[in-house]
Amino acid sequence: MANQLGKRYTCAVCGTLVLCTKTGEGAVQCCEADMELQEPRKLPSSD
Predict the structure, then answer these.
(1) Phi, psi for 18 (deg, rounded to 5)
(2) Structure pTM?
(3) Could you give the number of structural domains in the chain?
(4) Torsions phi, psi of 27, nearest 5?
(5) 15 near 43, Cβ under 8 Å?
(6) Of residues 22, 16, 43, 44, the one with CA closest to residue 34
(7) Is residue 45 domain-resident?
(8) Domain span at residue 28?
(9) What is the DSSP string of 1-47?
(10) The pLDDT of residue 1
(11) Is the per-residue pLDDT at 32 higher than 70?
């Protein structure tokens, strides 16, 4: 799996957050485990 430019990754073990600034092959790892892709936050509606 290639890492994605501009995406944020989080470590489930220690909570470290990483912002990807360069794409490439492989997985982003921390604490000897793959980091999870962080889901974007929902924006409040402007009604």
Answers:
(1) -130, 135
(2) 0.74
(3) 1
(4) -120, 150
(5) no
(6) 16
(7) no
(8) 8-37
(9) --B-TT-EEE-TTT--EEE--S-BSS--EETTEEPEEPPPPPPPP--
(10) 64
(11) yes
